[in-house]
């Protein structure tokens, strides 16, 4: 019996030693975004990171590199290293080894990686919502199979504190196919599929958005407190509308993943405070770029579309009029480096805040990216944008930039949406006509000494002014008046 007890004691000691050894050498853990099938930004330096036990040595073997990479986890168990990618189109592997782990990531490709974020119009899936379609969705989904288009969706994960833990839908990267694309962002899919076809390289689209979220939810506490007091009182009920929590849980965890650029479709939730929006957007973009630490990467965004139910249709001079928010988005281009705005004045829906023409939105973002990021200089990327005016012949002559090939209107004899006012700040509907294919002349017989003009200055309007590529002009005003009114018809 004594001999049995001694043997049992020895076995227990050996077992404890083995268990303690495993405790010392914890398994390698990777964030969900670092997985098989991922797209790494080509021909640059990318990061691979994860967790192990503190002091754990990890050896990384990459199929395209001739040398091993060895990294040691820090005192908190975090490790991160940089790898140089190439332009190869061949699938690659990455092997990570430690004392207790042997992980191989397969079918890794090099290509173009874009982040897509914002609120419901970015979150809107290809399959649409009940009663809210996406045009051409059925055929798009049916023809979506493409192993060179990879998709990654960040799950909705609000957090009161910045986190490195990443919650992902489908637990990693997936191929585009009829099973994976229906719930994926329609704008992101249309952008990515066309970019992949045009560049003929793999493309990775990272989707991280949440409907009804204001821009403040996508900014850190450190940055946002410089602008306003923070309020977390509605966190439990409305996490998507709470300051900083979407940045903490859905942006911060992916800032080590190298991207080419970002697409942003948001603004509806901030339409009641347009006076702050351009500054907030500038602060957010600056912070994201600092967090990624890869320079002023391209940041392209969508102007919110006209919609009748933002407020009373006849709102004109207060912030219930969404034209003020559209103006703030237009101004953001002047204060944020390496950015541009896709205009949607002609493709809104009067009765839905989610316009169904998502491909057109993606097309316009794509045009911007092709021209400005990928140097396809023959691709037109902007409709006419107001630049200056002069009083002339009892009217106003309006001049535009980004209209090198001239202005166009489908109904050239009746261009809708223009208004004109004198010093009394009363705006009358203006007769508008194209002059010399480059200018717009507006007038109204009741305004004999015109001072200012406006275009599309209301919640709902169907854009009527384009360039010759049929890209629309955004709404604008030449004045900065408070208390202007529309004449009653």
From TrEMBL:
The highest taxon in the source lineage is Bacteria
Answer whether the UniProt record assigns the keyword Coiled coil to this protein: no
Q: Which residues form the signal peptide?
A: 1-26
Q: Where is the Sialate O-acetylesterase domain?
A: 112-350
Task: List keywords of the entry alphabetically.
Answer: Hydrolase, Signal
Its recorded name reads: Sialate O-acetylesterase
User: What phylogenetic lineage does the species belong to?
Assistant: Bacteria, Pseudomonadati, Bacteroidota, Flavobacteriia, Flavobacteriales
